[in-house]
Batch of 3 targets.
Target 1
Amino acid sequence: MWEKCKELQNKLLRMRRDLHQIPELGGDLPKTRAYLEERLQEIGIPFEENSFDSGLIATIPGFKDGPVLALRADMDALPITEENEVDYISRHKGCMHACGHDTHMAMLLGAAELLFKNRDRIPGSIRLLFQTDEEGAQGARRMVDHGCMDGVSAVFGTHIGTILSKEIPAGTVICTPGCCMASFDKFIVRIHGSGCHGSTPEKGVDPINIGAHLILSLQEVLAREIPAVKPAVLTVGHVEAGKTYNVIPTEFLLEGTIRSLDKETRDFLAKRIQEISSQTAALFRGSAEVQMIWGAPPVVNDPAMAKLVADCAREVVGAEKTIDHVDAPNMGGEDFAYYLEKAPGAFIFLSSSNKEKGSDVSHHNPRFNVDEDVLWIGSALFVKIVEKYFHIE
Ligand SMILES: [Zn+2]
Ligand SMILES: [Zn+2]
């Protein structure tokens, strides 16, 4: 059945371009949802809208009760002004599908059409999860909290683009066992000092001096406290303090992110940020307030499900375009991780990197684009996964 996806290529391209023109942000995506609903209605697939955001769940019932297999697409875009010169450029100013989620929806709709046509061959059912706010790491968590994974026996999702490397040619499928993406969390530290004249620092407590010590001390956690074989990142990306050269301000603000591949390292980093912040501040007579904003956990693929995907990929794109092992996971994050905490499954990367077509640009760049020729592969993979999972001959 998956071969038929090749015939859907033009339709997939059209749907992707339609969606590309109406990017929306976060959890409120009315036009995107309306578009998906129209397509689902055309096919005849019943769906239910989320009551808490613009996501929706559609169900393809098979010929009998059986395992429920979930397939996911994310729907949200980014606050970026598109710089591509294409006739399907974003019509929503300052907003752009710069991560390829437009293609994810199109590819899942394509798979859904084929699976619905062949529903009398499926001994179970397919649940289509269209989620909002992947970029804010909120959409998947919200849906999971509302029970979207209840009764699901396996879950799969795809990300298009250049995530692993722009050197991997378009049409390559990558699916690896175990951890494939990191957790991502944000931390905010507010250092409180006591403001005074720059000529008499002894009369106050200088939060900038404390902040400078803190930025360097935080890196010691990676250098001296985490085993070299455990990948972890601690980046300070935003600092703010003071307004002018001769005034010692009262506060220093520092924001950053931590990435890790396991819960132990993640918890340890958070604990040490707390301790080092408050103790460094205390050391120099100030105080610190630390806030952790937890993002998604690491994306951990089930080995058997990752193998199933790789086997499917070998049939759809060939062994030479299938990668089932990489040296290191990606330190980026994905809220697909929340689904994988509830059921075994796998997250799949589909490369769309093509230098000649200019689609070898980084995600979240105003010139991000995809090689649209790979769209059918995304649909075909989903269909093939269903065939293999349910042993449909
Ligand atoms: Zn993104
Ligand atoms: Zn993305």
Target 2
Amino acid sequence: MTAPDFFPHPEPTQSYWLTHEDDLANHRTTEELPQEADYVVIGSGYAGTTSAYYLLKDEKFRPSTVILEARSACSGATARNGGHLKPDCYLSFWTYAKMFGPRTAAQLINHEIKHLKEIKKLVEEENIDCDFHLTRAIDVFLDERVSVPTIQAYREMVKAGYLDTSDIEFWANPKEAEQVSGMKDALCAFSFTAGHIWPYKFIMHLLRRAVEWGANLQTNTPVTTLSEKPDAEGRWTVTTPRGTIRAKNVVIATNAYTAGIMPEFKDKIVPVRGIAAHIAVPEGQRPPHLNNSYAVRFGPKQYDYMVVRADGSVVVGGAKQKVLLSDSNWENVTDDSKLIEGADEYFDGYMQRHFNGWEDSGATTTKIWTGIMGYSKDFMPFLGRMPGKRGIWLNTGFTGHGMPRILLSSVALAGLMKGEVDDLSHTDIPWPFWATEERIRSTESVVQSYMAGDKHNGEKKN
Ligand SMILES: Cc1cc2nc3c(=O)[nH]c(=O)nc-3n(C[C@H](O)[C@H](O)[C@H](O)COP(=O)(O)OP(=O)(O)OC[C@H]3O[C@@H](n4cnc5c(N)ncnc54)[C@H](O)[C@@H]3O)c2cc1C
């Protein structure tokens, strides 16, 4: 395996979401880089953009802010994801309970659920044209190795009583599960409230607002180094090929690429490559009706996720059965210019294979792309002050599941930066998100064992 360089690849694949390029895509607010700023935000994805948005939202406090983006605006994981805003409202409960205790597990889940209403509210307040839909997600299990333990774990979770499960519906009978989900060979299914969105349009709208509120956006400007220490005036030096900026505060929103500018995060946030596709029926034809979003579980850690767009086309990602065949497909990979061998053909005939009524639909893959996620070693993002580095703020490492986690993280981070709260313990951010020294120092990682499923027993396979 070649070591990643931790910088975004200059020529990424094009995702379906990026087919409607925003006119801010290659924006530079000023021709030259400012030499100084109160805040430099590195990264213009969901985390960087919402950090800047909430930092600048209040017109009484508008510090000078520069947003630096290595490629075009919002061209990382946010613009390459599945568009699924899906709280993990039962599946990871016992994993989290084992890691952090059952009350914290419930807090983590409730924090995700809260995002649905908050994002809906924001989309409505801002009148964002981003195809936001509140829907039901259906998790469908096609293999007994996952259906049986999940049903048992779910029942135990309900009995333990830490969570309000009134929004979750559950079918353990295969016939009912197939009927409700429309999926062939379903063994059981769960459904609950979720959402889906055009993530690029959502974030580009908020980025435009931040620019209107005074942010200086500089795209195609990679940060190559961040000084190890601040200078005598307490300013950090942010170096790019176009010059340096001295900044009192720096927000790290670089997700998978964080170790590129902060070596402390090597092996703490691991770049993981994922793949997704857009599937549609031929133009002029009507797609068979589907109105839920999906997660499909084919075996341990072998899953896909899928959203159904209002035009009846779908965006589906995962292909884990193929991706996980070799660690070199996904682990420590920052290259989103290439597809994943084997996974590229995986989506051909996908709807016909798995969904009743789609056999003669003629549905084909219209777009396929890869993207790089930032998996943190304990699945939790790093949020808040960087310990020992005054003025460095973290909002990074969202582990392939940022949609229902980032917005409220950015709200809390902005509150900290503006001095409205002095510590994340005074917010409703679950403590596993806090960027503590202990977490950053720890060498333990659950990423390999989590991703591996039943593929191998702790051995690496290359
Ligand atoms: C294929 C795929 C499918 C996914 N599906 C889902 C899903 O359905 N639901 C869900 O919840 N999550 C999903 N995710 C994960 C989700 O997209 C991420 O959690 C989320 O977008 C992370 O946002 P971010 O802003 O932290 O990272 P990013 O969007 O990656 O933004 C980081 C930005 O920082 C920039 N950057 C990095 N280094 C530098 C540097 N040195 N200088 C300047 N700029 C830099 C990058 O270019 C990038 O634009 C998926 C991810 C992928 C790849």
Target 3
Amino acid sequence: MTLSYWLDRQYTPREPLLDVVTTQYCIVGGGITGVSLAYYLAKLGKHVILLEADEIASKASGRNGGLLVPGLEKRYDLCVQDYGRPVAHKIWQLTSQAIEIMKTLCEEEHIDAQFLQEGVIKYAMNQEELNDLITRHAPYSQLLTKEEAQKKSLRKCVGALEYPKGASYDPATFVRGLARLAEEEGATLYENALVVDWIHQTDHYSIETSGGVVHAQKIILCTNAYTKELIDLPIRPVRNQALATSSFKRTLTGGHYSADGWMYFKQTPSGEVILGGGRDKDKKTEETDVDDLNPTIQGYLTNYLGNLPLSGAFAITHRWAGIMGFTPDKLPIIGEVKKDIHVLAGFSGLGNALGFLCAKEYAQKLINGFCELPLEPFSPKRFS
Ligand SMILES: Cc1cc2nc3c(=O)[nH]c(=O)nc-3n(C[C@H](O)[C@H](O)[C@H](O)COP(=O)(O)OP(=O)(O)OC[C@H]3O[C@@H](n4cnc5c(N)ncnc54)[C@H](O)[C@@H]3O)c2cc1C
């Protein structure tokens, strides 16, 4: 098991579940999706229990690049083609708004997640990539000329797409801060509480954990890459590698994607560079849920640091991996999959803003029967 830069700090987990407890909503999974859902359901006055197998934010949500970008993994033009312009536009608008809400939560609720709204840039290194970026040009983004883009970081790029409202943050601190807020709103969270099975009783489910049992009216699986261990859905685990350097003079602002989205990097406010990706260098090995380093990709990441405009000597302090949940069309699965069993999972490598948004909106949907986010593109039925 690798240790991410974000998780390399003291943390005291909550007690595991040892008793038999009863609730309306039982959320399984304490990453950004599950914790956001617990927060919003509790805020709406619902009785919520969250069960996390390990520690809050210990999986992808505490191991990622910490970039917040509007939109989906699926290209905007393809979303327009498949769902119509109003639906595509709404999704981009709401993901952009979600970033603002996360920023406000950090400011108003004193979550010290180093939130920086300096924009996120996607670089094109050749004409083909540039043509692709032009096709991807979506609301809330703007094309940069070669000269403008080169000033941002990668001197050999030929152009870029910038999301000025894009942001970056410390993902583990955000999720753990939100977990505290969820508790303040009345939710109960258990850590080291692995869900192993559930039984459908006449009017509720009995959820068996490694400790106690939860009787709940509804189960909501926010288990992303690990969902298949609990229910048969087309979500496969895919590994992603990352590293962090020691701190040095801050020359990089904003978040950055390059190599057609395969690489990402940023510099934290305290000067460490977080860089990750490179999965295209050994895709086959990365089709796994084993949290191990891949020497080929880690070597590639080390060399890639040479492309960044960094000044001064530095060391690599952390190398880690994280497991993402991919669906066949790279869109999450959001909805009821069996009576009173709901799923929010399969974020396919882009789940910080989207996981937060889907959870916030799904809390509304569960209680009021509708929400602002168009859910048709994410319906579980598309795979049935
Ligand atoms: C290296 C890396 C870099 C990334 N970079 C970015 C980025 O810059 N921007 C971005 O938007 N996205 C990024 N992502 C993707 C993003 O991290 C994920 O999409 C997001 O964190 C998913 O959150 P989640 O809460 O759905 O899943 P997770 O964070 O994986 O949480 C699921 C939780 O469920 C728990 N669980 C599973 N099974 C059980 C069970 N049976 N019982 C109880 N609990 C269970 C797990 O322990 C886990 O804590 C990256 C991912 C990785 C790995």
